[in-house]
Amino acid sequence: MVHPDFTILFVDNPLKSADFYQSIFGVEPVERSPTFALFVLKTGMKFGLWSRHTAEPSVTAGSGASEICFKLDHAAGVDKTYTDWTARGLTVLQTPVEMDFGYTFAVADPDGHRLRVYAMSAA
Q1: Which of 12, 26, 53, 99 is at a distance of 20 to 30 A from 72, taking alpha carbons?
Q2: In the predicted model, what is the mean pLDDT of residues 48-53?
């Protein structure tokens, strides 16, 4: 069976985006250049930021069509993260709300990619 272990976002400026994600993840990238940055997270997942101007094949899609999700254990953590991230000036796409899957909010990163934080509902 094949399972993904690496996500790449196409960004305008990988160095600027790396600074942003370093502040969110709390870890430094293992690779950082004007065209690409790479994080290896505690889970083992690799998270890359590739310049949309140098990626091959050419990137034709716009930003914001993807969503990165961050699961937390409790609604209080969702609220705390919302307060932290909005204080950083992130664009709010959805304020904290209870949805059918749990308590959640969504913001946009500097390139317009969606970042969702959620805590599952107790079933």
Answers
A1: 12
A2: 95
